[in-house]
Amino acid sequence: MLQRGLGGLVSHRHAKSLLRALAGQPPLPRSAWMPAQPITVSSSHFQSNIKDYSIPNASWSPVMVGLYNELMEKTVDGSWTRLPGCWRSLQLLKEADLARIAKAVPIQMIEDARLFLRITDTERLGFEYVIFHSDSEKKCVCLFQPGPLLEGLPGIIHGGALGTMIDTTFFATAYYSANAVFTGTMTITFRSPVILGSVVRLEATVTGTEGRKVFLSCEAQNSDGTILFAEASAIFFQMK
Amino acid sequence: MLQRGLGGLVSHRHAKSLLRALAGQPPLPRSAWMPAQPITVSSSHFQSNIKDYSIPNASWSPVMVGLYNELMEKTVDGSWTRLPGCWRSLQLLKEADLARIAKAVPIQMIEDARLFLRITDTERLGFEYVIFHSDSEKKCVCLFQPGPLLEGLPGIIHGGALGTMIDTTFFATAYYSANAVFTGTMTITFRSPVILGSVVRLEATVTGTEGRKVFLSCEAQNSDGTILFAEASAIFFQMK
């Protein structure tokens, strides 16, 4: 999910101010081009829009809700956890991790930014998804219902949108199972087309580690596992 | 860009009606879940929203506009072509190709669908991009200015958004240079983080063919080529 600075990793000059909880600045009107305006993190950034987007809504199909309920049952004994669907990665990352990331990558606050998967927040139209994590199995399962704004060929999901969901499932697995947040290399093989509005079940697993490298694999299938939509592998890197 | 049905390629039962230019049906209200409603293609689908999104607008930075003007100069003698920025892939594909694709992939019309890269059509916020193609060099150059809604880490582009732009540049190269539209396998290695609002220059080339397979490579760099953001390779498949 998160891009990595392998080569010229810059220590971030805004790191301190970024982590200070200062009062928010009013957003600038930006109808015409101007350089990005880094702002300091205010407590409102952590608190604003704390809606959980990974709870069933009226746009979820009965198949999607059925799979959700099955996975929720696995959370009862604590072996699996449902991850909340956030508005920005800032809400997802532990504050200590954010400080470590800021040493490696020039992160900054932009007032109107939001997580790519939240690019539309109207129910049904974009990325409807929920991710469950099992710590003991070092695994995540993602249920994903792509909306009509994720189109490639008419009525079919864009490869980049499925790739985004795969990357995000990899990220959740790498972060919660192995403390890795930086995507190094990702390979995706597309096997069958995904029709918009259908349900995709993604399952990603940590397959090994080597130094700071974390190796993962992922399969995206239909709801009953009879169609393989895509398979993927990735190398993530742990934070220093 | 476009997903492929490698395994159980289905001949599409809607193919004929899909290609008939019938009068449009009114969109259905779909506040709650219901199955996708395939509709027939009307002439309005080809004509509606013919705005060209790949022309400079007020949100493009001076660097983006400068690179655009340089590439536009190369179009004067016809060696390079600027590709129009469309609203749906339907507007991009030749009608005869759409019929061939429909034999391999169950494409269908969904009333409120649109190309993933057009998920937001407000200037600056999403994918601002333009692609140029050289037929003789079997190459595309894409200029890309990612907006604040494409965020992964705070202020940094989401790997899935950069992957979407890479996939799209691959697609344009594969389609216009080698008549291939189906992404088979794509590998991306992320090298440096891309800051939202900065300019990315992607260059993709056909490196070889083997039967219906088309091999491609791509590099994503900053505007003056001093930072490598990502490198990628892909295999696309030609239509039968």
From TrEMBL, chains A, B:
InterPro entries: HotDog_dom_sf (IPR029069), Thioestr_dom (IPR006683). Pfam families: 4HBT (PF03061). CDD domains: PaaI_thioesterase. Residues 155-226 form the Thioesterase domain. This is Acyl-coenzyme A thioesterase THEM4-like isoform X2. It comes from Equus przewalskii (Przewalski's horse).
